[in-house]
Amino acid sequence: MTSFATLFFVWMALLLRIAHASFDILPSLSGQEQMAIRSQRDLMSNVTIDQLPLVGVNLRNVIFNDESVNDTESLEAFQSLMQNGVQSFRLDLQQNDSVYNLANTDIELGTFLLAFESFVNMTDDNLSANILTLHLNISNAALYGNSSSNGSVVPSSGSVPNITYTLDQSMGRLRIYTPDDLRNDQLAGATYDNSGLSSSGWPTLNNFLYSKRRRVVITELSNTLNYSETPYIFDSSILHYDVRNKTLETPNTVAQLMNISSISWRYLEADFTPAEIREYTNMGFSPIIANQYSKDNFTSIETILNHSVVWSWDTDQPVTTHTATPKNSDSLVAYNCAVLKYTVSNHSAFWEVNNCYDKYQALCRYTERAYEWAVTEASDTYFAFDRRSESHCPDDYRFALPRTPLEQFSLIMHLANTTYQNIQIWVDMNSIAVSNCWVTGGPYATCPYQKVVSRRNFVTMLTPVTVCCFFILVLVSYLNLLRVPIHSNRKNWKRLLNEVSKSELDGVPS
Ligand SMILES: *[C@@H]1O[C@H](CO)[C@@H](O)[C@H](O)[C@H]1NC(C)=O
Ligand SMILES: *[C@@H]1O[C@H](CO)[C@@H](O)[C@H](O)[C@H]1NC(C)=O
Ligand SMILES: *[C@@H]1O[C@H](CO)[C@@H](O)[C@H](O)[C@H]1NC(C)=O
Ligand SMILES: *[C@@H]1O[C@H](CO)[C@@H](O)[C@H](O)[C@H]1NC(C)=O
Ligand SMILES: *[C@@H]1O[C@H](CO)[C@@H](O)[C@H](O)[C@H]1NC(C)=O
Ligand SMILES: *[C@@H]1O[C@H](CO)[C@@H](O)[C@H](O)[C@H]1NC(C)=O
Ligand SMILES: *[C@@H]1O[C@H](CO)[C@@H](O)[C@H](O)[C@H]1NC(C)=O
Ligand SMILES: *[C@@H]1O[C@H](CO)[C@@H](O)[C@H](O)[C@H]1NC(C)=O
Ligand SMILES: *[C@@H]1O[C@H](CO)[C@@H](O)[C@H](O)[C@H]1NC(C)=O
Ligand SMILES: *[C@@H]1O[C@H](CO)[C@@H](O)[C@H](O)[C@H]1NC(C)=O
Ligand SMILES: *[C@@H]1O[C@H](CO)[C@@H](O)[C@H](O)[C@H]1NC(C)=O
Ligand SMILES: *[C@@H]1O[C@H](CO)[C@@H](O)[C@H](O)[C@H]1NC(C)=O
């Protein structure tokens, strides 16, 4: 009898599970993973925004491809991608009367943008802010128009949705870096291109994030908008957007690297394996993941993200000081400095935390040239590689680090040419001033967050940003409320409230 009862409960549990089968969203990043991402952002602060390695997804393939998934869940999954370091999104839009919908869904563009905006709001501080890009592929065919005799669909009302209005309503102009902003920056000499000229090109990440504080760049991949009426959106001519097969050469020489870096916003949209996405990221592409996922296997995108979002640090790096084990308790120990570990067998390079008092060779760069490297002959402690004093670097070379995957690629080429063994070399990245705050600029560089840090415990500052914006969830739940019996929404509300109070406890960086 008891076994029957057990069976019954197991059966009920299974049934409930199936009934609640839902979109599993990606777990939040650990503090350590966030640190790796933040340190990458900070070391790229002098890189122009068109040269950044941004990891992106084709949202139609990855999330919005299953009509049985509800809006709240798919928008939560979308937010969890942003939390996990995805910064670029290809968005397919389809006209439904006077508004745009995400293709194949009944989610309006405005609703999507509110979910997007709520993430931007949550991360609108110096610790978490980063650039985000949207790439719109707008289909001319209206969803609910009258089919003409030859099968093409004509918009029923004849009017095109006003995308400027939608952006104004849901995101606001102040978030968007517009073509006008670019023109102003170019006139003000705040932009750079490959040749160092400032009347063309793009602003540096530093300038983009902290002086303008406009964090979103929107481009259209298709060619349907009327640009005299859409002041917020760049046309596709600024992009180099490859789909499936790359059209850029694989660089083998410094000249080819320079050629590649003269091209702005290099995207490659494709189905990637983890190894492929790493390869293309290293070659200087921003990958757009177009693999098909369903709600059941969505979280497996993590393996691909793990091979692309962090291109610098090794997995599980940077370890925090107290978890690194000292080799020898007699000697001085400070696990606050970064070495680049080069492995000959597969020509790979990753960074890891090491003891600043150990002696290694170090990496030097020829003045400001991005792709010219030298490794010091002398090995020394990290503190000996101060930019301000006599340096072990050759004349006109300075202690340095690779600032982009493409720079690291050129370094690997250099190492492959000059050494036949695995080596570890110091790179200009350390957390000596404040442990957990990784900075570049020699051993005496200061942590830019020192003010924030001294006010609160830095470790609590590093707790993952819990994306649970009450506003958007209420909004979407309200939309759901219109469709489903109130009864089934009770649970949802309880969960929402729980999540909100949890995120209040976690504390959000200000
Ligand atoms: C950016 O460039 C400025 C001026 O050349 C320099 O002082 C600063 O250290 C650089 N920052 C990084 C992160 O490389
Ligand atoms: C299209 O818009 C109409 C109202 O304008 C709405 O009733 C309908 O559900 C929408 N269709 C989709 C697929 O969202
Ligand atoms: C984001 O913040 C702005 C102002 O700070 C506010 O007006 C807007 O409603 C917020 N949006 C969302 C979706 O939370
Ligand atoms: C954020 O960074 C900018 C530029 O570095 C600085 O002017 C501003 O004071 C910082 N804000 C906070 C709250 O630290
Ligand atoms: C935009 O979407 C259409 C299908 O809706 C597709 O044929 C086209 O290739 C897409 N454009 C880009 C640039 O991906
Ligand atoms: C279909 O017919 C419309 C007019 O009804 C015309 O504008 C359009 O070019 C035609 N499309 C094709 C593919 O023939
Ligand atoms: C479709 O066309 C018919 C006549 O051709 C017209 O009466 C109807 O209003 C049209 N529907 C829409 C949604 O425009
Ligand atoms: C679109 O909306 C904006 C306001 O957000 C308005 O200024 C503009 O005139 C509208 N454009 C058209 C073509 O109606
Ligand atoms: C892309 O590459 C594959 C093989 O790698 C080839 O079969 C296909 O024809 C190429 N497609 C285009 C559009 O070049
Ligand atoms: C995820 O599942 C869908 C359908 O079940 C399948 O088509 C797709 O290939 C799967 N994706 C991955 C990456 O396993
Ligand atoms: C590596 O060596 C080859 C010839 O030995 C040379 O052509 C190439 O430019 C070198 N690459 C780098 C990055 O130094
Ligand atoms: C949508 O998802 C939420 C959260 O998983 C759930 O509580 C709600 O019942 C779902 N709504 C519909 C219409 O399925």
Describe the structure.
The chain has 510 residues and is α/β, with parallel strands linked by helices. The protein folds into 3 domains: 20-306, TIM Barrel (Alpha-Beta Barrel); 321-452, no CATH class; 463-499. The chain is built from 16 helices and 16 strands. The strands form 3 sheets. Strands 1, 2, 3, 4, 7, 8, 9 and 10 form an 8-stranded mixed sheet that branches. Strand 9, helix 10 (274-282) and strand 10 (286-289) form a beta-alpha-beta unit. The longest helix is centred in the N-terminal third of the chain and has 18 residues, at 2-19. It is globular and about 75 Å long. It binds 2-acetamido-2-deoxy-beta-D-glucopyranose (12 copies). One 2-acetamido-2-deoxy-beta-D-glucopyranose binds at residues 253-254, 410, 413-414, 417.
Helix-strand makeup class: alpha/beta
Unreliable spans:
14-20, 147-151, 455-510
Shape summary: globular
CATH top level assignment of the largest domain: Alpha Beta
- Our count of helices gives 16
* Spatial gap, N to C terminus: 58 Å
Average predicted confidence as pLDDT:
82
Identify the quaternary structure here.
Answer: single chain
Give the amount of beta strand, in percent.
Answer: 15-25%
> In which range does the helix fraction lie?
25-40%
The biggest sheet, with number of strands, parallel, antiparallel or mixed sense and barrel status, is: 8 strands, mixed
Give the names of the bound compounds.
Answer: 2-acetamido-2-deoxy-beta-D-glucopyranose
Please tally the β strands and state the result: 16
Computed over alpha carbons, the radius of gyration is 25 Å
Tell me what the CATH architecture of the largest domain is.
Answer: Alpha-Beta Barrel
**CATH fold label of the largest domain:** TIM Barrel
- What's the domain count? 3
Main location: membrane
Function: May be involved in telomere capping.
GO cellular component, one term: endoplasmic reticulum membrane
Family: Belongs to the MTC6 family.
